[in-house]
Amino acid sequence: MNKIAAGLAIAGILLFAGCATELNFSEVRKSLPAVPAHKGRIFVYRPSLDGAATPTDVKLNGSVIGAAFAGGAFYIDRLAGNYTAETTSEATRPLSFTLSPGQTRYVRIDAAMGYLIVRLYPELVDPKTAEGELTGCNLISGSP
């Protein structure tokens, strides 16, 4: 019984430690570093709780850049160029876009019901819509 209690205590500590690494986007938006002049910034966010139990990694040009959690957001700065974003959910729907120097692009992870499970896919969103949706998201610290 002591092993079970110890395991639950450790799980609780890890859960609270994980929560401590998230900050509400609206609280930190003004303190984010500027986009480097020769790069662009890509925000990836998942504002909806639809499919919250379904985790997904997000790939950019085939490489995993982070995990999309319901109510979470992260960003990555990359050189200008052509990119393809996709998730690792049941069915993929790749999203292709171009990133210019100094530009910020917003990729929202949307959910749709598949035959058996929720499918998560990237959608390019205009800045005004994205900034409104991001205010309800937590920025995951450690964003690249």
Task: Explain how this protein is built.
The protein is an alpha+beta fold and 144 residues long. The chain has one domain: Sandwich (Immunoglobulin-like), CATH 2.60.40. 22% of the residues lie in helices and 44% in strands. The strands form two sheets. A six-stranded mixed sheet has the order 1-10-5-2-8-9. The longest helix has 19 residues, at 2-20. It is globular. The termini are far apart. The model is unreliable at 1-21 (pLDDT under 50).
Q: Strand count, sense and closure of the main sheet?
A: 6 strands, mixed
CATH architecture annotation = Sandwich
Count the E strands.
10
Please, what is the average pLDDT? 79
Give the total of domains.
Answer: 1
> What is the approximate shape?
globular
- The CATH topology name reads Immunoglobulin-like
Q: Could you give the distance between the termini?
A: 41 Å
Read across the widest sheet, the strand sequence of neighbours is: 1-10-5-2-8-9
The tally of helices reads 3
Percent helix: 10-25%
| Helix and strand element order | HEHEEEEEEEEHE
CATH class: Mainly Beta
Secondary-structure content class: alpha+beta
Give the uncertain stretches in residue-range form. Answer: 1-21
Radius of gyration: 17 Å
